Amino acid sequence: MTTAVLEEPRVGDADPADLAATLAARAVAARRLVVDMAASPRGCHLGGSLSVLDILIAALHRASAGDGTEVVLSKGHAAAGLYAALHVSGVLPENPAPLYGLAGHPYTGHPGPKVPGVRFPTGSLGHGVPYAAGWALSQRLRGRHGLGIAVAGDGELQEGLVWETCQVAAAQRLGNFVLVVDRNGGQNDGMVADISPLPRLADRFAAFGFDVTEADGHDLAALTGLFAEDRSATRRPLAVIADTVKGKGVRAVEGKAGSHYVTIDEARAAKWKRAIR
């Protein structure tokens, strides 16, 4: 099995139309890879991997600027999405899909630093957020302009460590810390709204001293624009609340809590992949 790694346009250098087409093609290729991983013997966290893909692809494009920006997938159970995004972005040369979950290979159900492009292991929810904040602080102390970008799930916001980190990030005036919330509305045991709702989420981040913006988490142009902003003179961290659809791209599972973890056969995978556009 092979997939085409799409050439990386340089940040700030690419024609906007060309960049949009390149990133959109990556998103399609990555979604098909995630479906392939759902067809592995162990299956994968399909819904959250598909919801977060556009965020990861846009963030990895920002990181390709080479200014020290680090992307941390805090919702580590969406590892299949991360592996796919790394591969189509050219960071991970090897196609991870045929090797996902196999002994002797690094493509486990939660990502670790044996995977090219993964600096921090994640999986215990909440822990990737302070990793990214610490990275942002290190960049500032070194006089660099790189961002620390944490990508968390909305269910993950039930972890207290997330909010402890927000308090520290604001106190340290980490303007180069960006926390992206993949707000797909679901979590392991059902819907976030039924388990522990998050009303006035933007106000909560603002109360912690964050700049806050809300975005369509599948709008690659909007996400790319947000990540490209020069935050070198900013002293307030940024929270991006990105509205997404769990299972995005596979109509059979879109928006369904049951898409959280899925194992399918190869025939169904082939059918779903043909429908991804």
Please characterize this protein's 3D structure.
This protein is α/β, with parallel strands linked by helices and 277 residues long. Helix content is 39%, strand content 12%. The chain contains 9 helices and 7 strands. The strands form 2 sheets. A 5-stranded parallel β-sheet has the order 1-2-3-7-6, with helices on both faces. Strands 4-5 form a two-stranded antiparallel sheet. Helix 1 runs antiparallel to helix 9. It is globular, with a radius of gyration of 17 Å. The two termini are 20 Å apart.
Reading the helices and strands in chain order gives HHEHHEHEEEHHEHEH
Mean pLDDT level: 94
Oligomer: single chain
Which strand order do you get reading across the main beta sheet? Answer: 1-2-3-7-6
Low-pLDDT regions: none
**Into which percent range does the helicity of residues fall?**
25-40%
Termini separation: 20 Å
Question: What characteristics describe this protein?
Answer:
277 residues; alpha/beta; two-stranded antiparallel ribbon; 9 helices; 39% helix; globular
Write the layout of secondary structure elements.
Layout: H1 16-38, H2 46-63, E1 70-73, H3 79-88, H4 128-141, E2 148-153, H5 160-171, E3 177-183, E4 186-187, E5 190-191, H6 192-195, H7 201-207, E6 211-216, H8 220-228, E7 238-243, H9 266-275
Parallel strand pairs: 1-2, 2-3, 3-7, 6-7
Antiparallel strand pairs: 4-5
Helix pairs in contact: 1-2, 1-3, 1-9, 2-3, 2-8
